[in-house]
Design a protein that fits this description.
alpha/beta; 5-stranded mixed β-sheet; 6 helices; 38% helix
């Protein structure tokens, strides 16, 4: 008999690195769709999956109190939609810091899963040394996210 999961799976949740790095849309929804109860239910679900760290790529410290209350480590780095490629390494470094903590299981999110987020994830796979080819990194992230990545995301992936 399998254990029934409680809580609510966040929209777009996917493992980028199984058991270590996941991605989803903003916890609780974004904009007018954001609901405190939904956020709380999604946090319950995330904790059941082993997530213990949240990296938000949104402005300010949105939801930081809710994460802290739930016992989740929280890191934040604002990423504008029109992020320049030379700004991407600062995001990669935040992900590295998050993942370097012993036992860290990290969720990274923005309002939605868009080309920028996809490009940053593929770029992180190159930056971290897990992959060494931008084409392969692009393909891997596209398969994980189940969507094609446009030029806005591709330009964030280091090529060397």
């Amino acid at each position: 008999m399998t254990k029934k999961s409680t809580g609510l799976e966040p929209r777009g949740f996917r493992w980028v690195i199984k058991g270590r790095l996941a991605v989803s849309e903003r916890i609780g929804g974004h904009g007018f769709q954001h609901r405190k109860v939904r956020r709380e239910e999604e946090i319950v679900w995330l904790k059941e999956q082993g997530i213990n760290t949240v990296v938000s790529l949104l402005g300010a410290n949105q939801n930081s109190l809710a994460y802290d209350t739930a016992g989740l480590r929280f890191l934040s780095r604002e990423v504008e939609t029109d992020i320049e490629p030379d700004e991407a390494p600062a995001v990669f470094e935040v992900l590295k810091v998050a993942l370097d903590a012993p036992g860290a299981v990290v969720l990274v999110h923005r309002d939605t899963i868009d080309d920028t987020l996809g490009g940053l994830l593929a770029g992180y796979l190159i930056y971290s040394g897990m992959l060494d080819d931008a084409i392969v990194a692009t393909d891997v992230v596209q398969r994980i996210l189940g969507r094609a990545m446009g030029p806005e995301g591709r330009r964030l992936i280091p090529t060397s």
